[in-house]
User: Fold this.
Amino acid sequence: MGEEDYYLELCERPVHFEKANPVNCVFFDEANKQVFAVRSGGATGVVVKGPEDRNPISFRMEDKGEVKCIKFSLENKILAVQRTSKTVDFSNFIPDSSQLEYTQECKTKNANILGFCWTSSTEIVFITDQGIEFYQVLPEKRNLKLLKSQNINVNWYMYCPEGAVILLSTTVLGNVLQPFYFRAGTMSKLPKFEIELPAVPKSTKLNLSERDIAMATIYGQLYVLFLRHHSRTSNSTGAEVVLYHLPREGACKKTHILKLSRTGKFALNVVDNLVVVHHQDTETSVIFDIKLRGEFDGTVTFHHPVLPARSIQPYQIPVAGPAPVTSQSPVPCKLYSSSWIVFQPDIIISASQGYLWNLQVKLQPIVNLLPDKGRLMDFLLQRKECKMVILSVCSQMLSESDRATLPVIATVFDKLNHEYKKYLDAEQSYTMALEAGQSRSSPLLKRPVRTQAVIDQSDMYTHVLSVFTEKKDMPHKFVIAVLMEYIRSLNQFQITVQHYLHELVIKTLVQHNLFYMLHQFLQYHVLSDSKPLACLLLSLESFYPPAHQLSLDMLKRLSTANDEIVEVLLSKHQVLAALRFIRGIGGHDNISARKFLDAAKQTEDNMLFYTIFRFFEQRNQRLRGNPNFTPGEDRAAVKRTRVGGGVGRGGDGGADGSWMRR
Assistant:
């Protein structure tokens, strides 16, 4: 398979660390996404690396026994190390602070610490087999303060740093899960819920393993993902992933089931709001999108893979070492290795090879793997880096080789404009709230984020439609139908159509001499009125004489283009028509006499000039009590009457001084 067939890949620049061996132990911190390589218990060095860390953190610590768990607090200010089942040791990494270790023992008698999680830069949670203990670390005093604790029998735990939720497995079977939510020094106990096991257990031993549970944020909501190896329904074969929605308030509910239709060893990731399920036996992966339409039974929505199963794109590990050695060919990475460990949301670690990768989705190959354009758009519009891929799909469906039908094109345009309209409405609501002064009273007021799913008219014009109309081999009827379909979609969502789209339609019609269609589009207001459009129509007069009147009609309808109408009429030497128009809208008392006298003079029609001149004299008499012109206007009148000859007040060649006086 070529690169275009793989829709999943490992990141180009992984985190490289010293591989695990008898001397070097490797740990992963899910909150900071850091890998710790601890040599000889820390005595010969600890190296900390993460995807966002430009410089690794290196230090040494005294070997006080086997390290069970090691993590930095958020912002890397305090290091916590668990070496025994009763205590956790702390070291400050704050400048000008004592680096002497201090220790905290769990409060519950006879309890064993299963692990710990940092929830902030100075707050930590101990999870024991008998409950949960929430502490505040006081680095300057080198001790801890217990904020809250809860006694509960715990089999295992899981932490989701994005949601700040710790999940505890309780009861003998382990399938009753108790979530706790942490925020700003507070610990909240959320309603517990039960995971439905595949069948009634035959024994009373632990039935739910932490290997079959994951927690991840999908489309802004926290979910618990349960990998059920055998379906509860007898007519269904294969494993499935059950999604439980875990809200901050209210009970946890089962909402989605992802059908895998196969059995074996699985692992889960979440990438770009997609659930990725890896299958080790076939060395392939499938993706699920819970936003896409599934089969709803009244309670739960069933989903099938969006695309056929594919392997992750083959990956080459560069050979490290001196220059002569690095010239060797890269070594192929063993994908889906048994040494791979998967962490949420998108982390894959190979401790035996010493690499940490972020899993990534490639959108371009999906375009050819998902033939249903409507479903493809639904999928792409939910992805982060989707804009250019969406625009390429639009161009592709308008190409000669992959031309889509008009109903399909209309569906795609409607889906794009639905997202566009949502953003415009949110932007308008935000602006109105600002103008109403709500920003002071509501600190939660935030400007809507323009995601890549917002494909506006400028994007479509620049990348798709303007290029499309230039294609010589495309039937002009299809070109016009596509342009009108996009304008129809914009109108359907009550989005104001930009004038350059109308201009594109007009230019296309003119290019193919379809003036009758242009006339109909304008007559029935298929093309919205605008000043730029009216000006474009004026420029077409030499090709299509009725365009002049169509332009004037449009300007008249706009009611805000009176000056433009006057200018158009004057430029055509229709001075009386311009004057009648101004009188009709009641603006003749404020217009410049000079402009009209100049225009009348250019016609070389003495009678017309005299008529215009008399009109303004009478206006002056009515407004100022005498027929005299103002200084700027009388100079124009003098100049025009002298040059014109014989046209003046009473036909005396302008000799009467009543209107020439300074």
In short: The first strand starts at residue 8 and ends at 10. Residues 457 and 498 are 7 Å apart (CA to CA).
